[in-house]
Each structure stands twice: as structure tokens, then as C-alpha cells.
């Protein structure tokens, strides 16, 4: 019965019939409650966009080893449950609780069943947790270990470079014809446990995973095509330039990319953000506009910088147009709220701007940019006490780029 119902659930997910998938997953779990059927049900909730329901479901059944009599015989399923529960908590910004759950995976019976890609994902989420709890050296170690386990975990590479943009990924991503390797001062190589530039973290803070050679391969693992390897390596250099605020170097490498990759929202967003950070607002606006024309459905955090770019240029018309487009895409997104805040700010409606920026802060409390803009709006209104409270909050985050801050001050106090 189990295999037949699982197949039925997966078919409904493929057809986007999530209510059907949830119904059959609930029936399966009711018929034979186990860590495995609970994982299926919680996973279906996540795929259906109901991650909060999944988290509550898992919380209700936690600890899993005590709530299922057969848990001892299903280490693999319990391990998957712990991972899923930890990730749903992390996505809900409950980082300390997420860390406690994910650390339970250190037990050998759980780790032994995980392949390289799964362990890489585990270290990625531990890195996210440490980043958001202000433990940068430890987060670097986790991102570095994640890339060591699975060289093509792009999310880990991106976050690693955001913290250490000088790192060279050549030894990790470049295929060597002769098998030789050369290491530079800033190289991150596949055999290094600790991230370059970070202080080695105590073993009590790290997830102790087995040696890579002892791990099972991911199911249906395929070799990454050489052309994709070369592209990823070039993208690491572009990211490095962007995170180093070197717009010229980023632009040179981006323009050298094949047109089918260069003319995409992701790449143009990188270029536009680098130009914006460098104070090249007119060039940035053109790149942002091209990104929007190619992918008008794209809703990511680059758009908040597009709105600030238009704010710097005092382009009220295009800023209002952008706000209307984002309302159509997702009016409840924190990105949309920030853009609306800039839209009202540019026409002098600072009280209204603060309302939208405050809403953005509530929707995404980990987005420092909305707090930054809110602080500037309080300064304009000479609400110094409120502005100082925002400054205290921002002290918990990485400070904004100095070029942006200086230009904003000039616009407020010409």
C-alpha cells in the first residue's frame, strides 16, 4: 500500500494538485504512522507552500524518537525529519531552535545514511543560522565545508563570497587535465576543512561529518558538464568583484559572458547592483531597466536597490511605475513595501514612507535595508530618538555601503 500511495502523492504533486497530495499523505500517515509517513506528509505541506503548517506538524510530533515506537529502526527517516524540521524553523527565523534540532543529526546513525549533497545542504543551513546569529567565523566554516562536500552548491558559494570576496574558487570548480593543483594565498581547495581567513571553530560548534571518501554518492549523481563548470567558475569571479564593490571588474567579466547567460535577470541584477554600489546611478538604472524588461516577473531583493537608484536620480515617474508593477506581482512582499516607501519618500511624504518601511521590517525582520531607509526618513523629520533606535538595530547587521550612505545624506541635506 505504501509504495502505491507514495506514487499517487508524487503524481499529484507533479500535476500541482497539492490538496490531493495532502489528502493522500494524511491517509497514509493515519493508516500507518511512522517517521517515514510523517516526513512524506510534512514534505507535501512544504511543497504546497504551507511551510508553517509543516513546522507546526513536526513540532507536535517532536521529539520523534519518543513519539514513534519504531523510530529506532528508522534512523534514516528520523534523520530526514530532523533536517526538515530544522530547515522549516530556520526559514521561520527561529534560528536557535533550528540549531538545536539540526545538531541532533550529529548522531552517527543519522549521519551515516546521508550522502554528500545532503550533508552539504546541512552545513549550508548551519551556516545560515550562524550568519543570522552573528557568528561569522563559524558560518564561514560551515559554508566552506558545504562546498567541500558538494563543490557545486551555489548557495554556499554565494554566501561564502559575500563574507570573503577575495576567495579564489579555481581549485574547487576548475577541472584539471593533468590532475595537478596550484594553490594561491586566497584559494579555497576541496581538501581544506576551515574557510580561508576564518578562525578554526571549536568542534563543539561544528557538525562532525564523516570523511568525504566514506560518504555514499547522491542518488542519480551526474558529472557536472565541463561547460557548466567553466561558467560557474566565471560567475564566482563576477560575484567576487561585486562583493568587493568593483563595478568595473564585474562589468568586464559580465560583458564577456555568452549573450544567452549575460542577458538574464540574475546576471543583469549583479551588474546593476555593482554599478549602484559604485555610485554609477544612471548606468545602474539602465541595467535594472533591462533586467525588468527581460524578466518582468522577477521579484528579488535587487529591486529594492533599483528603487533607491531611482530615488537618487529623483525619477518619480519610473519609481511610481515600478511600485505599481510590484504591487501587481506581490503586494505583501517586503520588497514591494520598501519600494513603496521610496516612492513616497521621493515626493516628500516621509511619514507615509515610514509606514511602508515599518511594514517591510515586520514582514522580514532580517532585512537590514528597510531599517536603514527607515532611519534616514526619521532623520529627515528630525525624529532623532526614533532614528537612534534604528541605528541600534542596524548595529546587529553589516553596515550599508559607504557610497550609498554618503549619497543619501547629500540628497537629504543638499
Offer a concise description of the structure.
The chain has 414 residues and is mainly α. The protein has 24 helices and no strands.
Core attributes:
single chain, 414 residues, mainly alpha, 24 helices
Mean pLDDT: 84
> The biggest beta sheet, please?
none
Q: Report the strand count.
A: 0
**N-to-C series of helices and strands:** HHHHHHHHHHHHHHHHHHHHHHHH
Span between termini: 73 Å
Structural features, described:
The chain is globular. The longest helix has 18 residues, at 226-243. The chain is an all-alpha fold and 414 residues long. 66% of the residues lie in helices and 0% in strands. The protein has helices at residues 2-14, 18-31, 35-47, 51-60, 64-67, 75-91, 95-103, 108-111, 116-132, 136-149, 154-163, 170-173, 226-243, 247-255, 259-262, 265-277, 281-294, 302-312, 316-330, 334-346, 350-363, 368-380, 384-394, 402-412. Helix 9 (116-132) runs antiparallel to helix 10 and helix 16 packs across helix 18. The chain contains 24 helices and no strands. The model is unreliable at 176-183, 189-204, 212-221 and 398-409 (pLDDT under 50).
